[in-house]
Amino acid sequence: MNVGIAGSGQLGYMMILESRKLGISFNVIGQDLDGPASRIADRSYIYEDYKEFVDRSDVVTYEFEHVDGRVLDYAESEGKLKPGIFPVKLKRDRSLEKDFLHSKDLPVAEYKIAMSAVEALEIAENFGDCVIKSVSGGYDGKGQYFVKGGNVPSSIPDGKYVVERFIKFQYEASVIASRSLDGAIRMHKPSFNFNRKGILFYNAAPVSDNGMNDAVRRLLVELDYVGVLGVEFFIADGKTIINEFAPRVHNTGHHTLMGSSISQFEQHIRAICGYEIPDPVLYRPSGILNLIGVNPDRKTVEDILRLPETQFYWYGKNGIRRGRKAGHINVTAETVEEVHSKIKKLTEIVYGNAPDEFL
Amino acid sequence: MNVGIAGSGQLGYMMILESRKLGISFNVIGQDLDGPASRIADRSYIYEDYKEFVDRSDVVTYEFEHVDGRVLDYAESEGKLKPGIFPVKLKRDRSLEKDFLHSKDLPVAEYKIAMSAVEALEIAENFGDCVIKSVSGGYDGKGQYFVKGGNVPSSIPDGKYVVERFIKFQYEASVIASRSLDGAIRMHKPSFNFNRKGILFYNAAPVSDNGMNDAVRRLLVELDYVGVLGVEFFIADGKTIINEFAPRVHNTGHHTLMGSSISQFEQHIRAICGYEIPDPVLYRPSGILNLIGVNPDRKTVEDILRLPETQFYWYGKNGIRRGRKAGHINVTAETVEEVHSKIKKLTEIVYGNAPDEFL
How much of chain B, in percent, has pLDDT values that exceed 70? Predict the structure, then answer.
């Protein structure tokens, strides 16, 4: 079987690492031939050659929703795109995602859509504490403006925005869910997520469900989804609010690479290839620390691997720069508390006392 | 870091699958460029180009002891071979292995060395129940003659043999052990192994130790070993006898790919690259069923993956033939008994009622 992956970053890279054992060949398409996934693919393509890429793949998936549209549109027209084009469309315009979730009665923060920067700032004035989010291209906190204590920015770039009332949440959490071709739904255990500057810094599983599973189940069905879906939540007193979803494997699911009976990456590939997807077993509490903007030297890697029950994932990207994800570390331990304390140690090993300098 | 693997079969394939995440590049050398490991290597070589292969690798290991000697000799002379050439020499002539183990007071079956077929048959006459083993190239039961009830073969091919008195064992077991560059020793949990026609058919871990760990620790030190070592035992009433060792990752360690905090493959690569090796945690009882001489169709793979907590490893070899290992299935479960019963189910799914027809 030939699986095509649109996008050549770390998510595709880990799909291949995890699923080649199934006897699958992987085609990867990206901007160049040098991405982490392209370098280990069976065949690599650049976006210009999207037709050949799709034609030579039995099924096409995407590791990222903001890849070249021609690939996805052609794969969809050939009936090969899984999950289909619909969730991508919702992600290309954040206002569509919000409206969709709202229309399906799924829990989202109070929001308004602004067709211009001026309108967005007006709404923000009225909302009080809120977040102004550009509708397009926003991930890892890009294109977002936080308004606190009436401190509305004097100007922001013009464009369409979603303005969301700020939720005073206790913590962020997420669910990695999967749905098979015949509609079976499986869930990895929810994780607690800690972000810095809008980027996932570390996470740990399991954490209590707080109604997340129910919401995700409904979302999977409403999207008629196939594959792995990552859904981020805010957990507030008595409320569980969807922040956003990602129609793909997700950074908060990397912990499933260690301590789980199946990783999110293999789960996704099994689902889109039409295999039954298993109920994931979390053998042991697990978590990750992201490696962002750092390039650990030999001694640092040695120190990381010296800690019991750690694994080191290096994506091999060309050029490490501030704020860019370059790898991650997996951790398991007997208790979640121990996972947290290991991650604390690892943070010191990797970032010293100043993680913010790398993010 | 560039790691060179001599031999291009499934063991090298799984070393790469498991360790690429460490940011390592892999060179593979084999008879052709088409072996399972060659196809996913960063650079692939044929044996004729052994000099370039070694020169472009920071460290060289072997996935099999019977690879082209020029590679190993040159890598050893360059100080790059890990584990070194010594354990290979012991494996090239089974009589040296036996003498070595015996001289170190490690528990082996009573044996005699025969310099010819005639001598071997004479010894067998006197020994009673015994096994006549060719000293060279013997693995997966090849070149072995079982003598039972005085039924000595009338002739065997001429050559050097080890004749071993037959041990009435309860079962076979093995230990996957590892030793780091600085001498730290780690052990995966021992497994129960079930062979058919001299080939591993399935296994399951953990099983009781019965003194195996002690013997393996001594062996690792006596060999001044670096990397993963597989040691097979016969467990008889009150006795634990070494059958043989393999100076490499081993088929009985494939279960560490699932349900363990680290696989034997990554453990080996970490050790030879000079990293600290962790104490492996067995999260949950685990086992494998080998896929020998079979080429499961889509429906069979679906049936395999439908069983909870299974993983399917397909090596992608060219040409499936009787007795040849083509893949394996990993299984975990809450208890070892459950692992055994899952393997029984999987055996029926894969082989029907007639496994022997494929072996």
Answer: 99
Residues 162-191 of B with CB under 8 A from A: none
As a residue count, chain A comes to 359
Q: What is the 3-state secondary structure (H, E, C) of A90-153?
A: HHHCHHHHHHHHHHCCCCECCEEEECCHHHHHHHHHHHCCEEEEECCCCCCCCCEEEECCCCCC
Do B77 and B116 fall within a single domain?
no
A84 CB within 8 Å of a chain B CB = no
The residue type found at B167 is I
Whether A175 and A194 share a structural domain:
yes
Examine residue A60 and state whether it is found in any structural domain, yes or no: yes
In terms of CA atoms, which chain B residue is nearest residue A296? B23
The domain tally of chain A equals: 3
Q: What is the mean pLDDT of chain A?
A: 95
Give me the DSSP letters along A75-91: HHHTT-BSS-SHHHHHH
Chain B, residues 2-61, CB within 8 A of chain A, namely 17, 20-23, 40
Distance separating alpha carbons of residues A228 and A241, to the nearest angstrom: 20
Q: Which residues in chain B are closer than 8 Å to A261, comparing Cβ atoms?
A: 258-259, 309, 332
Structural domain span for residue B298:
171-357
Give the 3-state secondary structure of residue B333: coil
Say yes or no: B154 and B270 in one domain.
no
Domain end: A39, A64, A81, which one? A81
Asked if B123 and B223 sit in the same domain, the reply is no
Percent of chain B with pLDDT over 90: 92
Contact between A22 and B332 using a beta-carbon 8 Å cutoff:
no
Do B35 and B126 share a domain, yes or no?
no
Residue of A nearest to B16 (CA): A17
Q: What pLDDT, in 10s, does the model give residues B77-129?
A: 999 999 999 999 999 999 999 999 999 999 999 999 999 999 999 999 999 89
| Cβ contact B235:B169 at 8 Å | yes
Please check whether residue B313 is in contact with residue B329, taking contact to mean a CB–CB distance below 8 angstroms.
yes
Written as one letter, the residue type at A359 is L
B350 is a domain residue:
yes
pTM equals: 0.96
Q: Does residue A2 contact residue A27 with C-beta atoms inside 8 Å?
A: yes
Same domain, A286 and A201: yes
Which CATH number belongs to the domain containing residue A115 in this structure?
3.30.1490
Phi–psi pair at B348, nearest 5 degrees: -65, -40
For residues B270 and B1, the answer to whether their CB atoms sit within 8 Å is no
